[in-house]
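Posting for a labmate who doesn't have an account.
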Amino acid sequence: MGPVFYILWRFSVLKIFIVCCLVALSVSPVLAIDSNIYPYVGVTAGTPLTSVTKLSDSSGSLDTDFSPGYLAGLCAGVTFDMPFAWNIDRIRTEVEIGYRSSDLKSVKTSQGQSTSLNGTVSVSNVMMNGYLENTTQLLSDVNTTLFLTAGVGAANASISSISYQGATLVKSASDTQLAYQGGLGAGFELTKNITLDASYKYMATTAFNFAGIKAEYGSHNILLGVRYAFK
């Protein structure tokens, strides 16, 4: 684990989020002077449809299959209205922290044989995200925005009680790696301050190393969220 990631995870992700929220609250009266710039906070919940996609060591590799799990996240950021054209109405930047967990279900060997695999993989992440937003007339009665997003940060994964064919591969282990994600979605403005988001995001990392076992990670995520804007 590199020194940047070590420092990042030694400084609690919850502390990072609290600091971001306090900054948003403290600057909101200042930003309110300019109606084109305003801070927001939000919560998200959803399900990761996949998790670790492959486990491998010196003896070979196994493709994994997971049961859909659960995830939750918090975010704090700032929205900027775009004065230009480019078909982009707003830009958002935010800090996001998240937690997701999935249970292993089965593995498939290189010969195509499938067998059960037990264990749990949990991932915590800190991300810096950017959003491009564009308004749409998709719903005439609700102010709607479509958005694209991308982000980069760090993810810490922990696994517990991974067993295969009656043998314990790893009792417990954790590792921290570079994380990146991208996605798209829609925001539905319920009131001046409250927006409901529905989105898809794909998050992946550089390979985790659990006690000599390499784990390739990729997570397809379906999310619902609520944002509160200070405007």
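Reply:
Got it, the structure tokens are right above this. The chain has two helices and eleven strands.
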